[in-house]
Amino acid sequence: MAAKMALADVKVLDFMWVLAGPGITRSLADYGATVVRVEAVTRTDPVRTVGPFKDNQVTQEGSALWWNNNAGKYGITLDMAKPGARAVVHDLVRWADVVTDSFSPKAMKAWDLDYPQLRKIKPDIIMISSCLMGQTGPLARFAGFGNLAAALCGFYNLVGWPDRTPSGPFSAYTDYIAPRFGLAALMAALIHRKLTGEGQYIDQAQAESALQFLTVPIVDNAVNGSAYNPVANYDAMHAPHGVYPAAGDDRWVAIACRTDGQWRALCAAIAQPGLAQNPRFQTFAGRQADRAALDLAISEWSRHLDPHLIERTLQAVGVAAHTVQNTFDLAADSQLAHRDHFVEVSHGTLGKTSVENSRFKLSRTPARVTRGAPALGEYNQYVMGQLLGYSEDRVSELAVEGIFG
Amino acid sequence: MLSRCRVLDLSTERGFLCGQILGDLGADVIKVEPVGGAPARGIGPFVNDTPGPENAIGWRAFNRNKRGITLNLEHSEGRALLRRLAAAADVLIESENPGAMGARALDYLALRDLNPALVYVAITPFGQTGPKTGYVDSDLIVMAAGGVLILSGDEDRAPLRMSVPQAYLHASADAAGAALIAYYERLNSGAGQQVDVAAQESIGLAGQSTALAAMVNSDETRRMAGGAKMGPIRIPLVWQCKDGLVSCVFLFGAAIGVFSRRLIDHMFAQGACSQAMKDTDWIGYGAKLLSGEEPMANYERCKEVIAAFFMGHTKAELFEAARANNLLIAPIATIDDVRENPQFAAREYWRTVPHPSGASLTYPGPFARLSGKPITYRRCAPTVGEHNREVLGGELGLSSDALADLARKGII
Q1: Across the strands, what pairs with A128?
Q2: Is B335 a residue whose pLDDT tops 90?
Q3: Are A6 and B184 in contact (CB under 8 A)?
């Protein structure tokens, strides 16, 4: 008999949507929490409208991004304008240990579901609100996606070529930082509640969480006045250090040398022993100063070779190297396969879907990712009947009132 | 909130943030450094651009709210002391390459025998086992392996990483949440376990599930300067305006198309676009582009109209319009701009932490605001061996003579 799941006793009423919030509740579900994910009937979760889409077909259930962020959750639909829906939510609050939302600050208050109200219903409730800029301040109501928080936090200017406009990070970068901090804060609150019986409120500004990842530039800028502008793939601790062309369409390999030994091993591997002998390149400072020449020499070698071959060749002699992996490489990656990174899970309307596993492993109470993301309203009956204990008649009445849309 | 939680933090710069998150949340975190100080103390940038063990900004950035001791784990007496500390700890964090802790008999299985309730967190590039577990790594290598590097940069040049290393921050932040899930479970079961975090998997989250594209038979997403190419659709996120750059989302579908409609309505009200553009169905536009019903050239022309509109306005004007009309536009900030953003000032976000030189350092403030026990920055990063006496003497009960003897032997 396997150990009980780590969060088997945690119940979550989840109003989070888009990416930064649902990333938190996906982790809770992975480790056994019962997560009831509420979707509005009137406003589609944007993530359902963003790919990658199964077979390139834009459909309500076909977004793999949706699957990946919502696997294991019990999805219900509610029309919050209906009085019956409010009563259901109050019962769910009584059922829950945690209530989450990631709307702009006015929404939960408009439904009388802000923390003071929730506390009246359930005094020891934990609530976490995650929004772009925080619940207070002049930009509290500035809503948007993680690309906008990434712009306001200074991430864009850190990715780019010195001779061009910054490229910026891929897509909604702060949406991939914030969930980690939200999870840690929420778990601390659950631990505190277990020890003391006290609930609490957590105001998470996604920008304020994300800026933790820029602590070094913030401190450096404040004390030294340092500017942080695009430097391509330059790194102060490694030379050569870069992304080099490999054989094939848009194929690349990343290579990084930190020590003299790695540098000599690289020279041997690329059959350029002369480079290793060259006094210009014998010290790290020399290699860093002349890195453009090194980049050229490595590229001349790498561009004719398969990136995976380069990776294996260089790793075998202790040089840090890796294929710059695309989606096809990831699907075939032996390490990810070893860690069961991709899992096939059941889905209410599609039969099977593929999602990524938990990104960390607990040895005794591992994640179990077995159910896919909910189809729209898939668990209305289950949540009303099994979790809230409503009679079939009651559920039918609610359906007739139109609370499920 | 985690005041009953004692954490031993053996991590290198790969894992500093994990212990700091736990320390911010109230845990008693003891940073264990090699004698003479952690190698990270030698990595710049430095306070006042002056190298020195207390000046390394990367060290100071991620070791606040920790006490610090030195311990030579290459020496059997040092390892014995570590075992005594681990016997009384709740969480241990390490970030050595797989096998290195085992060689010192300080791996999970060895310490579990001493302390079955220990939560043992290991942060590595690729995980504890598997074909790539012995790979040499760096931030860039992990970004490449995780499927994120390929997505950023300009399409006509090599992919680019973020110049401030990020991969291990993702892994360390994952590790903090994972440690607390295990710690929560321990409150029920009384038993600890090992937490195995692979940076390759952690950074993968930033690929926005494009990792699944091959598996679901979807178009590949590819990098593009200031945006991305999702299949045939070129989506810009960086736009030039009168005095700089803004980020703006101009996309389609039932949810995001609503914002695009608002943007076009706003432009129309300013006389900046045609009636035909205003009347376009932006909700269904993406599907029409994909089916070919709408020629891609029309989409490109619409983007040119928007680009021209942006060129007529400043960052501040566009941001103001975004706030007034609920549009998806924000200025692209430099680090200076970030520090001057009135939102952070209004929320009293920035924190000042003293530095031994007398200077005070400005830090990003708490990552979240918890009503139960707000995060405070109660300690700056420890000096080398600052708490040796307090922890090894006061708490482990070693006498002054014993401590002096350990120092003489190079163990502390």
Answers
A1: A100, A202
A2: yes
A3: yes
Query: CB distance B212–A169 less than 8 Å?
Result: no
Tokens of A273: 């022993």
Q: What's the confidence (pLDDT) of residue A1?
A: 46
Q: How far apart are CA A242 and CA A252, in angstroms?
A: 10
Residues of B in contact with A202 (CB under 8 A): 368-371
Instruction: Give the H or E element holding residue A64.
Output: helix A64-70
Find the residue in A nearest to B126 (Cα): A335
Do the beta carbons of residue B331 and residue A151 sit within 8 Å?
yes
Q: How confident is the model at residue B356 (pLDDT cuts 50, 70, 90)?
A: confident
Please compute the mean of the pLDDT values over residues B31-37 and round it to a whole number.
Answer: 97
pTM beyond cutoff 0.90: yes
Does ipTM come in above 0.85?
Answer: yes
CA-closest candidate to residue B15, choices B158, B154, B238, B195: B195
- Give the CB-side neighbour count of residue A118, counting CA atoms within 13 A: 27
Nearest CA-CA distance, residue B401 and chain A, Å: 40
Per residue in B266-293, pLDDT tens?
999 999 999 999 999 999 999 899 889 9
Mean pLDDT over all residues of chain A? 96
For chain B, state the CA radius of gyration.
Answer: 26
Question: Alpha-carbon torsion A127, A47, B261, B307, what sign?
Answer: positive
Q: Please answer yes or no on whether B332 and A157 come within 8 Å at the CB atom.
A: yes
Q: Which of A168, A235, A323 sits opposite B140 (nearest CB)?
A: A235
Q: What angle do CA B267, B271, B276 make, to 5 degrees?
A: 75
Show contacts of B101-109: CB within 8 Å, 24+ apart.
B104/B73, B104/B74, B104/B79, B105/B79, B106/B73, B106/B79, B106/B82, B108/A363, B108/B194
